[in-house]
Amino acid sequence: MLKAVIQAGGQGTRLRPYTMILPKPLMPLGGVPVIEVMLKWLRRNGTEQAYITTGYLGHLIKALCGDGSQWNMNIDYSIEPEPLGTVGALTLLKQQLTETFYVMNGDLLTDLDLHAFRDFHRQHGGMLSVATTLKTVKVDLGVLELSGDTVSAFSEKPVLEYTVSMGVYCMEPDVLELIPSGIPYGFDDLMHQMLDKNLPVHVYKHNGLWMDIGRPEDFQKAQESCENYEQRMLGV
């Protein structure tokens, strides 16, 4: 049985003052909490067991999601005694995560095909696969390239493109041995450790829908398209 871990223990500081009342995964899109849309997406992609790591206002998340029976899935919870970072909370679930599993941030929306993602992960045989997308960043200034103290090139308001993590991962249980217990530990820490140890990190490129609602401007963008968002997420 494929399992998924939703990281929902953060305080959502970038979305204050909204998150002073609600935890970020409960922020509504067209009246539907983000985490509900995520759980329906997981279930549609064949996930029957979800673990939600909670901390800040976690009782509200548990009150909404319950045991998951309303989505024909099973939901269990872990409680972070203090914020443990984006992957540190996985150490609380070592006994449960004994096979290939997904990990994802609790503030994202995507139409990623998890079946294809899982198949890609299993084919390469590594410990960690990262779902990625392309992100364009417009720099509203003139950008100078330098050679010493003189200008070698100039670009006026360039648009730059980067490959970025979507906050969705497929992992093997061996990854958990790299994560220290009881201290905050982020995905960036895990990446640096794996690169330092020459452990391969594989990338799955997604060309479809992806939104991270962790910033006010992104949350507003999601609100503007919320009328058909769940339909697009669930393919209905």
What would your notes on this structure say?
It is built from seven helices and 13 strands. By secondary structure, it is of the alpha/beta class. A seven-stranded mixed sheet has the order 5-4-1-6-11-8-12. Strands 2-3 form a two-stranded antiparallel sheet. The mean pLDDT is 86.
Short description:
This protein has seven helices and 13 strands. Helix content is 25%, strand content 31%.
Average predicted local confidence, pLDDT = 86
What overall form do the CA principal axes indicate? Answer: globular
Can you summarize the main beta sheet? 7 strands, mixed
Order of helices and strands: EEEHEHEHEEHEEEEHEEHH
User: What percent of residues are in strands?
Assistant: 25-35%
Share of helix, binned: 25-40%
Number of strands: 13
Order of strands, main sheet, comes to 5-4-1-6-11-8-12
Distance between the termini: 25 Å
Taking Cα atoms only, what radius of gyration do you get, to the nearest Å?
19 Å
The secondary-structure class comes to: alpha/beta
Oligomer: single chain
Task: Kindly list the characteristics that best describe this protein.
236 residues, two-stranded antiparallel sheet, 25% helix
Question: SSE layout and pairings?
Answer:
Layout: E1 3-8, E2 28-29, E3 32-33, H1 34-44, E4 49-54, H2 58-65, E5 74-79, H3 85-88, E6 101-105, E7 108-110, H4 114-124, E8 128-138, E9 142-147, E10 150-156, E11 159-171, H5 187-196, E12 202-205, E13 210-212, H6 216-224, H7 229-234
Parallel strand pairs: 1-4, 1-6, 4-5, 8-12
Antiparallel strand pairs: 2-3, 6-11, 7-13, 8-11, 9-10
